[in-house]
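User: tokens in, sequence out, please.
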């Protein structure tokens, strides 16, 4: 894993990752967008499924080694992704986002369509201004409480993050099994993202809780919306509604899967990305 530190306009630091060129003619370059809270470290479990996969990633503002930008919007991830791709000499790439990273993957598909081949949003919430469904139906009570704190503003959210207890019902038994196995990879990544406090996590949640800074209808690249049918962190209704709002998007519901365990379907997700090249 190569790690690089980019100096952007105004002296801002962007910490990025690259699993490195594969040397294969069929190399597939994918930019990973992790959830909330995560650093940008690309997931090792994905690499096991595709020897021609090259993964890039970057810490979003305030996480890991990247400078904090408290008022960054979801769409602000796009110039950071392009800065990383340019620094590595990568012209075209796919994007794959999980949970809070799903919106960032869609932002790239909308605002960098000349560089993005395809996008997958996994376990992604729908934007707050997208109506037509009950956002909280099927959501674990602790996650509802967190989302209501997001709507109430930074002070309320930070108080909830500091004092609220984790709701174990947010993870299904399948999620727990995935976390005990291959996707236990998430543990150190979440710990690294919160090592400097809760401000970056709050920034991330607040960005997702206001207008995303781009129009879903502007997405013109192939999009797959993948969701676990039993997800209790971000109920599957979010994925259904998101797929309806993105032109031409394909919905991929995984029966029996939750918020994390849906990633066990990685071979199918990566195969779909390859088919869009």
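Assistant: Sequence out:
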């Amino acid at each position: 894993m190569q790690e690089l530190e980019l100096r952007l306009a105004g002296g801002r630091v962007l910490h990025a990752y690259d699993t490195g060129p594969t040397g294969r003619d069929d190399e597939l370059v994918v930019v990973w967008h992790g959830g909330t809270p995560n650093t940008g470290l690309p997931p090792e479990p994905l690499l096991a499924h595709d020897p021609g996969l090259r993964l890039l990633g970057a810490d979003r503002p305030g996480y890991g080694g990247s400078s904090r930008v408290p008022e960054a919007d979801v769409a602000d991830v796009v110039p950071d992704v392009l800065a990383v791709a340019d620094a590595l000499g990568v012209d075209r790439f796919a994007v794959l986002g999980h949970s809070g990273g799903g919106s960032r993957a869609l932002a790239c598909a909308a605002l960098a369509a000349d560089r993005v081949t395809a996008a997958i949003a996994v376990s992604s919430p729908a934007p707050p201004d997208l109506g037509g469904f009950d956002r909280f139906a099927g959501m674990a009570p602790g996650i509802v409480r967190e989302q209501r704190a997001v709507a109430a503003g930074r002070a309320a959210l930070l108080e909830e993050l500091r004092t609220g207890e984790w709701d174990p019902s947010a993870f299904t038994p399948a999620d727990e099994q995935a976390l005990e196995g291959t996707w236990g990879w998430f543990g150190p990544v979440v710990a690294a993202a919160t090592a400097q406090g809760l401000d970056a996590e709050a920034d991330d949640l607040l960005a997702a809780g206001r207008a995303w800074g781009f129009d879903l209808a502007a997405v013109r690249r192939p999009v797959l919306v993948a969701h676990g049918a039993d997800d209790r962190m971000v109920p599957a209704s979010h994925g259904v509604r998101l797929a309806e709002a993105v032109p031409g998007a394909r919905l991929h519901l995984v029966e029996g899967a939750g918020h994390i365990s849906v990633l066990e379907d990685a071979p199918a997700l990566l195969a779909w990305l390859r088919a869009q090249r």
